[in-house]
Amino acid sequence: MTETIEMIHEDGLPGNESTLEPKPEWQPRYPGSGRLTGKVAIVTGADSGIGRAVAALYAREGADVAIVYLLEDEDAAETRRIVEAEGRRAITVKADVGSREMCDNIVEETLAAFGRIDIVVNNAGEQHPDEDITDISEEQLRRTFQTNIFGMFFMVQAARPHLKSGAAIVNCTSVTMYKGSKELLDYSSTKGAITAFTRSLSENLIADGIRVNAVAPGPIWTPLNPCGGASEEKLEHFGESTPMGRPGQPNEVAPSFLFLACEDASYMSGQVLHPNGGIIVNG
């Protein structure tokens, strides 16, 4: 486990939102309407970025939240404060989703605290930009796949015995799966795997009343980008290539995760939503 954490820190990941300027916008944009009342959600990568915005919105809609994070204790504590400020219960679970044992522990701690699991949000991920495919080390390649796709398998395997009819799984894929990314070869490849995983898992679980969908964000302002090795030039123009001409904010993505988790999406499974600033993609 120590070796895994050291690998992740090689380029500053996962990154601390408290030091990021400007601050990402996580705040829910509207009053809650009780769409997740009585539900319990596990949200991985919930200490910052999209995960924090999802946790905040789920709490506003009535859910208790297990906040799963890797290293950033301060950010995780702030997300917990946000959830509890909405009047909901929260726990923080420090874990590497790339470890099957730790995913089992996440589920055990969630059940111990809340007694049930209704929603699993597989959001945790990492990226390591490289200009040439020969620059991608075997260690990095294995680590990126371990976190981004193996972690989703492990989380679902751990949670599956406790998911009943009406439960929802929401995975985070990416626009890079659809349009490619010349500097994120390993990352975009994992996102392709996540989309295939989403569609296949939907077919696997749909007869049991469990819906599986995904969200494919475009360029969103979170710690993943500045802390994931992006150049100063790329950060300066981050998101400008979208039709909207700007990066998105986490609270512009979180409603997609809410929609797919609640009964509003009761006739949707195996699908992907695209909050990406107007980029046209297929699928």
Largest sheet: 7 strands, parallel
Unreliable stretches covering 5 or more consecutive residues: 1-10
C-alpha-based Rg, rounded: 17 Å
Which structural class do you get from the secondary structure elements?
Answer: alpha/beta
Counted by DSSP, the helix tally is 10
Per DSSP, what share of the residues sits in E-state strands of 2 or more residues? 5-15%
Mean pLDDT: 91
Question: Separation of termini?
Answer: 37 Å
SSE string, helices as H and strands as E: HEHEHEHEHEHHEHHHE
Number of strands: 7
Helix content: 40-55%
Query: How are the strands ordered across the major sheet?
Result: 3-2-1-4-5-6-7
What does this structure look like?
With 283 residues, the chain is an alpha/beta fold. The protein is built from 10 helices and 7 strands. A 7-stranded parallel sheet has the order 3-2-1-4-5-6-7, sandwiched between helices. Helix 5 links the parallel strand 4 and strand 5 (168-172). Helix 4 packs parallel to helix 5 (138-159) and helix 5 (138-159) packs parallel to helix 7 (185-205). The termini are far apart. Residues 1-10 have low confidence and may be disordered.
Structural features:
alpha/beta, 10 helices, globular, 283 residues, seven-stranded parallel β-sheet
Secondary structure blueprint with pairings:
Elements: H1 2-8, E1 40-44, H2 49-60, E2 64-69, H3 73-85, E3 90-94, H4 100-114, E4 119-122, H5 138-159, E5 168-172, H6 176-179, H7 185-205, E6 211-215, H8 224-227, H9 232-236, H10 250-261, E7 272-273
Parallel strand pairs: 1-2, 1-4, 2-3, 4-5, 5-6, 6-7
